[in-house]
Structures are given as C-alpha cells and as structure tokens.
Amino acid sequence: MGMKIKEWLQSLSFRTGVIVLMCCIPFYILSFAQMLLPISTTAKGVLWAVLFGLAKTCQYGGLTILGVEGYKRLRNKFRKQ
C-alpha cells in the first residue's frame, strides 16, 4: 500500500508539489504560535503534536511529489532570484 501512495504522489504535478510543500509553513508557525494561547498545558501539547505533524506531513508529501528533479528545479528558481 505504501508504494501505491508514493507512486500516486509522484504522479502529481510540479505545481501541486510546490503548493503542498508551502502549506507546511503556516502549520509550523501555528504549531509554535499556539503556545501563546491561554489554554491548559495538555491542550497545548495536543495542538502542538497535531499541527507539527501536519507540517511534517506537508513537508514530506511535497518533497515526494516534487522528487529529486523537481527539488533541483525549485532550488534553482530561488537561487536565480
């Protein structure tokens, strides 16, 4: 089953990979910003685990969609700017 998911992710477009990869940024920000909320420590821990997990899922999913060649292409775009 894991290989089917990986193959499906790799079949998605470069643009989709970039969008999924960029979605990890707000999740990282939210995972740490929620510490400022006036809620219990337990709730903060649960929120952090969920949001940080979503950030990592978006990060690895985006990298899987992009693949090595897509990652190099994206890196070159940022270097030119």
Structure description:
The structure is a single chain. 84% of the residues lie in helices and 0% in strands. By secondary structure, the chain is mostly helical.
* Low-confidence regions: none
How can the largest sheet be summarized?
Answer: none
Beta-strand percent range: under 5%
Rg calc = 16 Å
How far apart are the termini? 40 Å
Helicity, as a percent range: over 70%
Query: What's the average pLDDT?
Result: 89
* Topology as a string of helices (H) and strands (E): HHHH
Based on secondary structure, the structural category is mainly alpha
Instruction: Please report the total strand number as a whole number.
Output: 0
Give the number of helices.
4
Structural shape: flat
Summarize the structure.
With 81 residues, this protein is mainly α.
Which key terms come to mind for this protein?
single chain; 81 residues; mainly alpha; 84% helix; 4 helices
Topology at a glance:
Blueprint: H1 2-10, H2 14-22, H3 24-33, H4 41-80
Helix pairs in contact: 2-4, 3-4
